[in-house]
Amino acid sequence: MRLYHGSNVSVPHPRILSDRRAMDFGSGFYLTSDRSQAIKWTQIKTRRTGIGKTMVSVFQMDDKSFNKLSILFFLEPDKGWLAYVSANRRDKYRTDDFDIVIGPVANDRTMPTINLYLRGYGY
Fold this sequence. Notes:
The protein is α+β, with helices and mostly antiparallel strands. It is built from three helices and four strands. It has a two-stranded antiparallel sheet. A two-stranded parallel sheet has the order 3-4. Strand 3 (71-73), helix 2 (79-89) and strand 4 (100-102) form a beta-alpha-beta unit. 11% of the residues are buried.
């Protein structure tokens, strides 16, 4: 499986950075199977930081490797996904039981729902 990482720098070897940012799936190394999404993230990251240039790093993962990993898989942005993303964004999720989290990331359409949820309608 080919996976992409969009950034403002080249990333030849993935590293997990624990930088305390409120990310959808917590601290980690974010990849996508959608090249166009990676390109979009390169533009966002480069614009936010004002340094570097748009770079898409490509990684190949053997499908058999997934059998050895603990994976949390969200098929869609449902109630469980909302609770998980909201907990991570509030830094309230406190377990590292999963090697990989797969699922949709929040975007302009989902952010209003997440913001309502964070204001007290859940987790």
